[in-house]
Amino acid sequence: MKGLYCRAAESDAEPRFVIRETTLPDVLGDHEVRVKVKACGLSPLDFKMIQEVGIQRDLLPVGREVAGVVLKVGSKVTFFQPEDEVVGVLPLDSPCSGLCELVDVDEYFLVQKPEKLSWVSVAAALRDGVCAYTALHTHARMAAGHTLLVLDGASPFGLMCIQLACYHGLKVLATSHSPQQQTFLEQLRPSVGIQDPLVARVIPVHSGSDPLSVVLEETGGLGVDIVVDSEVRLHEDEEEGEERKLLPHKHDIISVLGVGGHWVTSHKNLQLDPPDCRLLHLKSASVSFLNPEVWTASAAQQGRYLHILKDIVEKMSAGVLRPQTEEAVPLYEATVAMETVQRHHRKKAVVQL
Predict the structure, then answer these.
(1) Rounded to 5 degrees, what angle do the CA atoms 90, 92, 97 make?
(2) Rounded to 5 degrees, what angle do the CA atoms 113, 115, 119 make?
(3) How far, in Å, CA of 157 to CA of 346, rounded?
């Protein structure tokens, strides 16, 4: 059978994605499950993290958010049986590509898929749902009545944060990077027939709106309780493209935080200068780093992780979390789709097998 793999590039060259033949062992491990993959979500590879955790392979498997049907179970598997429909995220060190017809995965990385959920939608949204839960529940400790600012709210991750926060009674503000995104966010509703929008105020940074002034206006000068970003600018004088210029500066994010506020950042190399730290200290505010691999890289809270996965798919089945529709691509287009995802880190793709 065929699978998608990445040949890591040397220096600054772009990585190469290739389809290769692969095989599975004849005997399953005691706690392993063999799954026939129906759909697989594609997310960017973090080569630096892969290197830092000691994974060294000539070909790295690609595609980890999988949805499929259980074909066979190991001798000590207790969670599943053949014909069960399951979803999960393969661990970072998995030797299997999720874009294979069959994959072997430990039962502790999978949960049951609700019958009414489509293969494509759950594979496309599972990772973003985990990131949103980690940001808002684990790091920010959100509670009803809090105010949340989601930067780049129309991104797949931002959309999950918005819907999850509104479900728990938070007031949500969000930035948009284009007129189309602004319209999309303003038209978001929790369900058909309800007039109240999910986003209390959309801040069109693409047209020059200043998030700080809008946030202070919306919060009576107090600032927000939580800020979640997908990326951030470290310097004002960066010579970046137009898309990069729409990202917020780190000082602006700290400025919109209220007393005791919490900033959850996806920026891996965030550098805070003494004035930034002083402002955080004055507000008694805090910063957390969002690492989407933390759950599968450590088994310390495996039960909590499975609870998160189960809650995500149940909320998706109930219509609480409604991801952006991703048009599934066939396997023969997976190489091109993955190249696009790797180049534009906030894009998503899903392959239907």
Answers:
(1) 55
(2) 65
(3) 8
| Average pLDDT, integer, range 322-347 | 81
Distance of CA 43 to the CA centre of its chain: 9
Report pTM: 0.89
The pLDDT value given to residue 262: 96
Whether pLDDT at 268 is above 60: yes
Would you state the structure tokens that stand for residue 92, as one six-digit string? 């970072």
Is 228 in a helix, a strand, or coil?
strand
**Dist CA 15 CA 162 (whole Å):** 33
The token pair that represents 62 in the structure block:
């690609």
The mean pLDDT of 117-122, rounded to a whole number, is 90
Q: What letter would DSSP give residue 346?
A: T
Residue 293 CA, chain-centre distance (Å), reads 10
Indicate the pLDDT class of residue 244, thresholds 50, 70 and 90: low
> Torsions phi, psi of 49, nearest 5?
-65, -40
Cα distances (angstroms) measured from residue 243 to each of 176, 246, 265, 305, 340? 11, 6, 18, 34, 16
- Lowest mean pLDDT segment, chosen from 5-19, 21-35, 100-114: 5-19
> Above 90 in pLDDT, residue 340?
no
CA distances to 161, 169, 262 from 136, rounded to whole Å, are 7, 12, 10
The tally of CA atoms less than 13 A away on the side-chain side of residue 224 is 31
Q: Closest by alpha carbon to 245, among 280, 199, 207?
A: 207
With tokens 């790091």, the residue in question is 139
* CA 261/CA 257 separation, integer angstroms: 5
Residue 92: Cβ-neighbour burial (10 angstroms; 0-12, 13-18, 19+): middle
How many CB atoms lie under 10 A from the CB of residue 183?
Answer: 12
Virtual torsion, Cα 39, 40, 41, 43, nearest 10 deg: -170
CA-based torsion, 209, 263, 158, 166: positive or negative? negative
Averaged pLDDT of the chain: 87
Using CB atoms within 10 A of its CB, is residue 176 exposed (0-12), middle (13-18) or buried (19+)? buried
Whether residue 60 contacts residue 5, with contact meaning beta carbons closer than 8 Å, is answered with yes
Total residue length of the chain: 353
